[in-house]
Write a structure and sequence with these properties.
Blueprint (H helix, E strand, L loop, with lengths): L7 H4 L2 H22 L13 H21 L3 H5 L1 H18 L10 E3 L2 E3 L1 H17 L13 H17 L3 H5 L4 H7 L4 H19 L12 H20 L3 H21 L7 H23 L2 H27 L2 H10 L11 H13 L10 H4 L12 H32 L4 H25 L17 H19 L1 H8 L1
Antiparallel strand pairs: 1-2
């Protein structure tokens, strides 16, 4: 046993390392395939992106080796200090960076460009794990979530507002999945799902007129969703009579509104907003009468959603950038722009579909070789996999990613201290978020927000940041036996 103690080569999880190497190597091959031209003869041609990626890969291996040699306690002790330095770098970046497609998130360091936002995710994970890993900390009430939410909200705000990098900022939402594992109420995740649903309905159907009277389908759908949530809680709290009162009043109100349309154009938007406002007050009254705190929260939630639904159009039209608006409109089918905002996704679908079951073969893809797909070696590299390796190759790649993420969850579950476990779960959620969003946007299932596929997309910032986060986790995991001996 003493021969194992402190031996990093014996304690490291080599299965995860092997998966990391497979993904990185396969990604390198596909970068070569995506950037290949017929005059190129070598994958090590450093004037080509594949050759440059090889340099980044060697740097990633060196970085991972250095991380494994560092004492695991450093990441716990210096978590807040590193987080503070990252915030300073993020704040300075917009003033030092040049505009790249409207974003001010890239720092030029001589011949190398790095994106601090990519590294901020993992270092924020360390700070959050440090705070939530305290012995006396329990994630039970809203007050317990203020500091963790602030820790992820500050860098998220800087990246989204100051650097105008929406994709990297949205990745911080993945932290909520790790919070849920630590005991965060499922209602918070439900609130997030509700916010997305309300946004989609308000934007997608906000301009669709009702067949009767005055009003939009979007407003009606949003209000019916809120009424449905109210009914769910009334039945759950066994206030069945009051639930049926709400159902009856709703049917009566909309039925009367439809009848009034015979004589004049009745405004259903006003009716819907009035009904939901009355129900919010009704829920608060019931909460006081029956002493049920959930109904107070439900009333507050309903009021907030009322304001949120009215603000959706303002955010969509005034806050989002024009290119972001058009991408959402194309995704929702509100506009058809095959040569503009929808061009990338349409070409990616064509490339993936042309690969069929077995693919066209390595370096045989026509869509990628003829440069039909923009960003085909970065954000849209998955289309190269689909074209050259086919449906089976794409499924195999997704299977490897699934194995990799499940392995990270396994590492998280076997940690002996809360700090390491929370950090491991956050990192697993970040990888899952990147994979889901990247593949989803290439397939046209999600809006194009521009985040890389881990270990696959071309670029040093993403490769090094993912490598850094992963090997910090591997170092913490390798220290399990040291902690066990220390406890003994």
């Amino acid at each position: 046993m003493n021969t194992r103690r402190g031996n990093i080569l014996l304690d490291i999880d080599w299965t995860t390392v092997l998966l990391f190497l497979v993904l990185m190597f396969f990604g390198w091959m596909n970068i070569y395939g995506a950037s290949y031209n017929f005059d190129q003869t070598s994958i090590f041609d450093f004037s080509n992106r594949a050759g440059k990626q090889f340099v980044w890969m060697m740097g990633a291996l060196l970085l991972g080796s250095v991380i494994l040699l560092i004492d695991y306690k450093v990441w716990d002790v210096l978590a807040y200090i590193i987080y503070g330095i990252v915030l300073l770098v993020l704040l300075a970046t917009p003033f030092l960076a040049h505009s790249v497609k409207g974003s001010y998130s890239w720092l030029s360091l001589g011949p190398v460009s790095l994106q601090p936002a990519e590294f901020a995710k993992g270092f924020t994970a360390l700070a959050v794990a440090k705070y939530m890993g305290r012995y006396e900390y329990r994630l039970r009430t809203w007050r317990d979530m203020v500091i963790p939410f602030a820790l992820i909200g500050i860098p998220m705000f800087i990246i989204m507002v100051m650097q105008r990098e929406t994709g990297s900022a949205l990745v911080f939402a993945a932290f909520l999945l790790a919070f849920y594992r630590q005991g965060m109420s499922g209602y918070i995740l439900a609130c997030g799902v509700a916010a997305v649903a309300l946004f989609i309905m308000a934007i997608r159907f906000g301009q669709t007129a009702l067949p009767l009277g005055v009003g939009s389908v979007g407003t009606l759908l949003c209000m019916l969703l809120l009424i449905g949530v109210l009914l769910y809680f009334l039945f759950r709290e066994r206030l069945t009579l009051h639930a049926w009162i709400v159902i009856g009043l709703t049917l009566l109100a909309y039925g009367a509104g439809a009848l009034l349309c015979i004589w004049f154009r009745f405004n259903f938007n006003i009716l819907s907003l009035t009904l939901v406002s009355v129900y919010a007050v009704y829920a608060a009254v019931l909460g006081g009468v029956f002493r049920k705190s959930r109904l107070y929260l439900l009333a507050a939630f309903t009021v907030l959603c009322l304001g949120y639904t009215q603000a959706c159009n303002f955010v969509f039209n005034k806050v989002l950038q024009p290119h972001q608006r058009i991408r959402i409109e194309v995704l929702f089918g509100m506009k058809d722009d095959p040569t503009g905002a929808g061009y990338n996704v349409n070409q990616a679908k064509i490339a993936i579909g042309s690969g069929r079951l077995f693919g066209k073969g390595f370096l045989q893809g026509t869509q990628t070789k003829l440069r039909f797909v923009p960003e085909q070696d970065t954000d849209f590299i998955f289309c190269t996999v689909g074209e050259e390796w086919g449906f089976l190759g794409s499924c195999a790649l997704l299977g490897i990613y699934l194995w990799f993420i499940l392995r990270l969850i396994h590492l998280a579950e076997r940690q002996r201290d809360t700090f390491s476990r929370i950090y491991a779960y956050i990192i697993a959620c970040i990888f899952l978020f990147h994979l889901t969003i990247n593949v989803g946007m290439v397939l046209g299932l999600l809006p194009v927000i521009g985040i890389p596929l881990p270990f696959f997309s071309y670029g040093g910032s993403s490769l090094w940041s993912f490598t850094l986060f992963l090997f910090i986790l591997l170092r913490l995991d390798a220290a399990r036996l040291e902690k066990l001996h220390g406890a003994v």
